[in-house]
Model the fold of this input.
Amino acid sequence: MDTYTPAEVAEQLGVSTNKVRQLIAERKLMAVPGSGNSKIPVDFVQDGIILKHLPGLLTVLYDGRFTDEEAFEWLFREDDSLPGTPVQALRDDRHTEVTRRAQALAL
Done:
């Protein structure tokens, strides 16, 4: 998996590195679990912004009591019925189905 550092994400978003760390702390962006917030998947940034529906999806997952590890694994798990991964579906603007599935898992 390709990753960015917080500084690289900050450059793409046009914000400070501290703002990127704040976004991670606020759970609006996610770093690879266990990386100490130093590795952010490149798939989470698209066209100079955080994936449009990623913050809301993370909220649904965390409200459903997912741990960081569980949420991360779910986001990148292949799902033949999507097809692809939930992150790829977000990147392809198929967020409604992904959010619906996350809500169903949270029940």
Remarks:
- The radius of gyration is 13 Å.
